[in-house]
Amino acid sequence: VSICCSSIACLLAFASYSVSKLSTDKLQPNKDTVFFRDGVRRIDFVLSYVDDKDGEKKQDRRREFEANLEKEGLELETEDKSDSKDQKTYFLKIHAPWNVLATYADVLKIKVPFKTSDVPHSQDVPLEWLSHPFRLPEHIMRPQPDYFTYPFEKSKTDFFLITDKDTFFPPSTRNRIVFYILARCPYYKEGQKERDKTGIKRLLSNGTYTAAFPLHDCRYWKRARNAECESERYNLYKHWARFLCFYKEQPLNLIRKYYGEKIGIYFAWLGFYTEMLFFAAVMGLICFIYGLLSYEDNMSSKEICDADIGGSIVMCPLCDKKCPFWKLNSTCLSSWTSHCTTTFLYMILQLFASFLQIYSAVTLFLEIWKRRQARLEYEWDLVDFEEEQQQLQIRPEFEIRCTNKRLNKITQEMEPYLPVTSKCARFCLSAATVIFWVTEYVSHSSYRLAVHAAFASIIKDPMRKIQVVGRFITPQLATSVTASCINFVIIMILNFFYERVAVWITDMEIPKTHLEYENRLTMKMFLFQFVNYYSSCFYVAFFKGKFVGFPGDYTYMFGKRSKLRNEECDPGGCLIELTTQLVIVMSGKQLWGNIQEALLPLMRNWWSSRKGRHHPENHNSRWEQDHVLQNFSQLGLFYEYLEMVVQFGFITLFVASFPLAPLLALFNNILEIRVDAWKFTTQFRRPVASKARNIGAWQEILNAVAILSVVTNVSQFHSRLKHFIECLLGYVNNSLSIYNISQIPVYNMPEERDDWFENSTATCRYRDYRYPPGHRKEYTHTMQFWHILAAKMAFIIIMEHVVFVVKFFVAWMIPDIPSDVKARFKRERYLIQEYLHNYEVERLKLQLSASFITEPQSEMSLMTDKHEVLWWENNSKEQKD
After folding, report:
1. Do residues 737 and 768 touch, judged by C-beta distance below 8 A?
2. Domain count, the chain
3. Do residues 35 and 41 make contact, with C-beta atoms less than 8 angstroms apart?
C-alpha cells in the first residue's frame, strides 16, 4: 500500500510538473520570437531601460509615458531585468492592435492595396538568357504581387483587400506607425502645460530609456522558427549581403519592403552608379592598355632618355641652396609613365568624352538616374508622397534651446522660434570656419615645399640610380610619392576634426526641423570634404609650376625671406604627380573606409555582447539579440552618401588625368554594396522604415560637381593636348628656355656641385618660353608664349561653351519620366477612379436597400436616393474627377 501510495504521489507530482511546464511553455513558447508571450500579438517596437541612481525621476517619466501610450491604444508587455543577460535591463514590448493601425494609417495616408494590378509589365529583354546567371529568384525580387493602391481610409475598410487584419499591414509599416505615436506621445500628467515634454527622442536624450528599436524578424543565418513569421532578414543575408553574391542583382523590392523606401533608394542609386562606372572603366582601361602596347613608340621619351640628347642637357636647380644642377634624362621614368595615359588614342577618346560629356560631366548619368528614380517612385507608391510631411516635426533640441515662443499662423498654436538677431550671429560664426579651409590649403602647400627641400638635400645627386623596371626613380618622383602619402595622412586627420566641426556648427545654428538639419549638415560637410580631399589635386593640376618665375627672379610663397620657393613641375609636366596623388588619396580613402565600416561595428557589437556573459543562463531572446547591435542613427545614410559623392568627385573632376580612376571606383563599389548590405543585415538594429522620393540634397551636389567637371576636364584636356603636340614637334627645343649660369644670384646657387658639372656648360635650361641670353629682349616672354596663352584661353572658352550647350541639350532631349511609366500611371489613375466610382455606387445601393427594408420612407426621399445613385452611375468623367 505504501509503495502504491508513493507511486501515485510521484505520478501526481510528475503530472503537476508537466502541466506547469506546459503552461509555462505556452506562456513563453520561444524566446527567439517576435510575438508577445501569448504567441499571437506581434512585437512592433521595443524600449529598453535600466534602473539607476536617478531612478525615481525617470520612473515617473516612464510611468506617465507608458500610461499615455496605453491611452492611445497600444498594448505593452514588460520583460523583467532578471530575465535579461546582464540582469540590469528591462525590455518594454509594444504591440499596435488593428484599431490603432487603422486610425494612424488613415492619418498618415498610407497607401494600401485594394485590387491586384492588371497593368502588364515591360516586355522581356531579347537574349535574356545571357543575364540569367545574374538574376535572383522571382520570390526574392518580387516578394509580393503588384497591386493598385490607394490611401487608407478607416471608413472604407471593405474597399481594400483585407484578408487578415494581423498581416494586412507589413512589419515595416507597423513599426513606422508605432514610431509616429512614440515620437508624439507626451510624458507629462494630464492637466499640466509642459508641452515640450513629448516624444521618445527626448526620453532617449535624457536617459529615461536606453534604446528604442523595431525587431528583426529572425536570425540572419537561419530561418524563423515560427512559420507565421517572415524570414526576410535571412533571405537578404543569403541573396544580398554575402560577398559571393557580388555579381548578382540587388533585391531592391525586398530591401524596400524590409527597411523602407529611404534605404531602398540609397541602394538603388548605389547600384545604378556602379553599373554606370563599368562603361567609364572599360574606356579608361582601353586607353591605358594602348599606352602600354605603344610603349616603345614614344619618340619624345626616347629623346629625353637618350644619353646624347637628354643626358647632355643641364637643367637649372629646382630649389635654392640644396638642389644641384641636374640632367634632363633623370626624368626618364616620369616621361615613360606619362606616355601610358598621353597617347593619341587617349586624346581622341578624351576629346569625345569632353565634347559630349558622356561621363565626365555625368549628364547622361544624371538624366538616366532621374528616369530610374521616376520608375521607382511609381513602383513604390511615392508619386504623391510629400517628404516635408514626414520631416516637419520640430527637433527636441530646438524646443529645449529656444525659449521664445510665438503663434504659428498655420497651426494656430504657440511654438518656439529663434530670434533674427541670434540667427544672424550664429550664421556669421559659421561663416568664420572658412579660415580653417584657407589654413589647410596654405599648410598643404608649405609642407610640400618642406618635403621637396628635405629630399633634395638628402639625395644630392639626381643621377643616383635606383633601378625600377629598367628606369630610374628621381628626387621629384620620390618627393611626389612621399608628399602624397603625408598628404593622405593629414587629410584623414583633418577629416576627423572637420566632421566634428561641421556637426558642432550645425548644432550651434539650431535648425528647426530634421530635414533642415540634415540639409545644412550635408552642405557644410561636403564643403569641408571638398577642400580637404581635392585641394591637393587642384594645386597640382592647376597651380603648381604656373607661378615659378625664372632663374634670377624666382617667385616665393611668402616673400624671399620665407625662402619657400614655389614648386616647379617636372619638365615632363605635373601629370605623373597628379596621377600619384589621385592613386594614393583615392585608393587609401576607399581602403580605409571599407576596413572602418566592416571592423568598427563588429568590434562594438562584440564588446556589447560580452558584457552579459557572466550570467549562467543564455536566453538569446529576439530583443536581446537586437539590443546588443549597433543603433542605426538618423544620419546613418548621410555618411554613406558622403563617401560615394566624394568618390564621384574624384572620378569626374580628374578623370582626364587618371583614366584608371573609374576602374578603381568600380572595384571599390562592388565591395561597398556587399559591405553595406552585410552591415545593415548583421551588425545594425532594424531601422525604423521611412519614405523618401529621391536622394535629397545630394542630387543638387551631383549637379554642381557635374558642371565643375566640365571646367576641370576641358582645362586638363588642353594641357594634355598641348603636351602631346609639343612632343610631336620636338619636346626639348619647344618647351625649354636657356639661362646663363653666371647670372644666377648667389642665394639661388647650389652649395655643392657635382664632379660632372665642373666647366661642363655655361648655361642651364628651364621650362618656359623666354628669349635666350644676349637677345635684345633677354629673358622676356617670346611671341610663342603669347600665342599659346591666347590659343589656350580661346580653346577653353569655346570648348566649355560647346560642352555646356551639348550638356543642356542632352538634358532637354531626355525626358525625366519614361513614356511607359507615364502610360502605366495614367492607366492606374483611370482604373482607380473607376473602382472608386463602382464602390460608391454599390455602397449607395446597399444603403438604399437597407433603409427601404428597415423603415418605410416617403416617396420624395426615395426619389432623392434614386437620383443620387443615378448621378453616380451616369456622371461624366470630368464630374467624377
Report:
1. yes
2. 5
3. yes
CA 667 to chain centre: 17
DSSP code per residue over 330-391:
GGHHHHHHHHTTS-HHHHHHHHHHHHH-SSTT-HHHHHHHHHHHHHHHHHTT-TT--HHHHH
Strands 45-50 and 414-416: unpaired
Which amino acid does the sequence have at 605?
N
249 in a structural domain: no
First to last CA, the chain: 89
How do residues 282-309 score in pLDDT, each as one tens digit?
877 877 777 667 666 666 677 777 777 7
Q: Give the per-residue pLDDT at 672.
A: 92
Angle at CA of residue 663, ends 662 and 666, nearest 5°: 85
Residues in the chain: 881
Within this chain, do residues 356 and 474 fall inside the same structural domain, yes or no? yes
Pairing of strands 147-151, 45-50: unpaired
Please state the φ and ψ torsions of residue 571, each to the nearest 5 degrees. -55, -25
pLDDT tens digits, one per residue of 454-472 = 555 555 444 344 434 334 4
Secondary structure of 575-599 as H, E, C letters: HHHHHHHHHHHHHHHHHHHHHHHHH
Pair (444, 423) in one structural domain: no
d(C-alpha 871, C-alpha 841), whole Å: 9
pTM for this predicted structure: 0.82
Residue 33 sits at φ, ψ, to 5 deg, of -140, 165
Task: Count the Cβ atoms, other than its own, within 10 Å of residue 211.
Answer: 17
* 845 and 806 within one domain: no
Per-residue pLDDT, averaged over 26-54, amounts to 79
Same domain, 701 and 657: yes
Consecutive H or E run containing 259: helix 252-259
Is residue 250 a part of any domain in this protein? no
Do 414 and 465 fall within a single domain?
Answer: no
**Residue (of 114, 92, 257, 271) closest to 173 by Cα position:** 257
Same domain, 405 and 490: no
Residue 1's DSSP bridge partners are none
pLDDT digits (tens, 9 = 90+) for 585-642: 888 888 888 888 888 888 888 877 665 544 434 457 889 989 989 888 877 888 899 8
Range of the domain at 496: 261-393+433-606+620-813
Identify whether residues 797 and 862 lie together within a single domain: no
